[in-house]
Amino acid sequence: MRLFVALLLCGCGGLARAAGTAPSLDAYRGHVTYVDFWASWCGPCAESFPWLNAMQAKYGARGLHVVGVGVDTQSASADRFLRAHAPQFPIVRDPDGALAEQYAIEGMPYAVLLDADGHVLSRHSGFRAGQTDEYEHAIQDALSPRGTTP
């Protein structure tokens, strides 16, 4: 576990990329993926991380991949945030905003739920503790074989 956290903090985590190349979510094709765009300065982003950890723990065995996409331009700020909030899911760094632009994010945090083919199933801006049941239902629905929650 310590190695995993160390890899996340250094930005490696199996998602390292060559300098100058755009970040990608291609490694998650074939899986339902909950992509969470976050920034170190975003209070609701910090509030969302325990819930994201819980969703990864609860649904990871069923095929869910939670991926955090950090949009900070300053690595030190992102690293402090990650140390404080201990994600139990992979982090992709997007300091140039390539993924943020690709998914047309409209706020922070911003979540995009993708099906196994990479198609957007749902999206929402912000994190509201009172709406986590709605967010979780979308995940359950995406993981259901027929697209409906049992």
Structure characterization notes:
It contains five helices and five strands. The chain starts with a helix and ends in a 7-residue tail after the last helix. It is of the alpha/beta class and 150 residues long. Helix content is 36%, strand content 19%. It has a five-stranded mixed β-sheet, with helices on one face. The longest helix has 17 residues, at 43-59.
Strand order of the largest sheet: 3-2-1-4-5
What's the N-to-C terminus distance? 33 Å
Unreliable stretches, pLDDT < 50, 5 or more residues?
Answer: 1-20
Which overall shape is indicated by the principal axes computed on the Cα atoms?
Answer: globular
Say how many strands there are.
5
Q: Mean pLDDT, as a whole number?
A: 86
Largest sheet, strands/sense/barrel:
5 strands, mixed
What's the order of the H and E elements? HEHEHEHEEH
Structural class: alpha/beta
Key traits:
150 residues, five-stranded mixed sheet, globular, disordered N terminus
What's a quick, concise take on this entry?
Helices cover 36% and strands 19% of the residues. It has helices at 2-10, 43-59, 75-85, 98-102, 132-143; strands spanning 32-38, 64-70, 91-93, 110-114, 120-125.
